[in-house]
């Protein structure tokens, strides 16, 4: 009897031990599952952070590359405008005038005669760069003639024709509340219609697909992404004038024979929305020294 009771007690103790062991194993499996879940969560957060960092880096790199392309395009437009003012190609050859062989309508400058100026053409205005502006002359030189021609043509939305502008339209206003034209979207659209594209007057080539700066290539007016405008300015010793936006200081540029300098404004827009670069420079045609 005693021996049977002892066996029962041993069986009960063994069963209790087995139950306790099973409970301990289940508890261990629960802790392991919790640890695994924590590790998976941390790994997921790490992967998410890495992907977001890579995406942000790609966006920053892409924006910077787009800005650099636009900046280089604007620089190229400045140089193209200088060749346009000089009336030559990058190789030094003279660009054909309107009416001459190889001259294309809408891509030529007329001979420097007042009667040759035509600002009424819709998209094909013919305007040349002024070569004289003597403040002592009654007519002020052909710069005043140009201003008169443009101002008399009613219906123009800007004081520009064939990428040549007058009356200080390209100046940066002194009044901070009045933005420059490239910050006024309505005025900018009107200015674009009167601006020049790369190679329009110089026959410069923007390159084929995969070559050169893609922002300089133009297949249509709606696909254009770079423009330039040139505004002739008179030399004036003092800028204390109500019309200061039309003048430039004389300085020591004695080599300038005509008394006119040119303010060039170049604008390029990148492929990404919001990418826009505007550059301005003053170009002075220097007198060529005679031999001997």
UniProtKB/TrEMBL annotation:
InterPro entries cross-referenced by the UniProt entry: PilX/PilW_C, PilX_N_dom
Membrane-traversing stretches: 31-50
Residue stretches making up the PilX/PilW C-terminal domain: 209-285
Domain Type 4 fimbrial biogenesis protein PilX N-terminal as annotated: residue spans: 29-77
Keyword terms of this UniProt record: Membrane, Transmembrane, Transmembrane helix
Pfam families given in the database record: PilX, PilX_N
Protein's recorded name: Pilus assembly protein PilX
Species of origin: Lampropedia cohaerens
């Amino acid at each position: 009897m005693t021996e049977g009771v002892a066996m029962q007690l041993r069986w009960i103790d063994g069963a209790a031990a087995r139950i306790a062991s099973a409970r301990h194993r289940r508890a261990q499996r629960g802790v392991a599952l919790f640890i695994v879940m924590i590790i998976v969560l941390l790994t997921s957060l790490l992967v998410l952070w890495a992907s977001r960092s890579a995406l942000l880096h790609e966006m920053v790199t892409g924006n910077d590359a787009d800005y650099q392309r636009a900046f280089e395009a604007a620089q190229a437009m400045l140089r193209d405008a200088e060749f346009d003012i000089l009336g030559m190609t990058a190789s030094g050859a003279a660009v054909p005038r309107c009416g001459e062989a190889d001259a294309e309508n809408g891509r030529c400058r007329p001979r420097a005669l007042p009667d040759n100026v035509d600002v009424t053409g819709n998209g094909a205005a013919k305007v040349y760069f002024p070569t004289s502006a003597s403040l002592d002359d009654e007519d002020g030189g052909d710069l005043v003639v140009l201003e008169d021609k443009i101002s008399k043509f009613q219906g123009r939305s800007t004081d520009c024709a064939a990428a040549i502008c007058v009356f200080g339209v390209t100046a940066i206003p002194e009044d901070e509340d009045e933005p420059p034209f490239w910050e006024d979207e309505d005025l900018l659209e009107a200015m674009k219609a009167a601006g020049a594209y790369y190679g329009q007057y110089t026959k410069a080539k923007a390159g084929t697909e995969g070559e050169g700066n893609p922002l300089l290539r133009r297949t249509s007016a709606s696909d254009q992404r770079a423009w330039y405008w040139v505004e002739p300015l008179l030399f004036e010793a003092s800028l204390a004038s109500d019309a200061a936006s039309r003048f430039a200081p004389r300085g020591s540029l004695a080599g300038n024979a005509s008394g006119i300098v040119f303010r060039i404004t170049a604008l390029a827009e990148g492929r990404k929305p919001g990418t826009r670069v505007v550059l301005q420079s003053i170009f002075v045609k220097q007198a060529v020294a005679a031999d001997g």
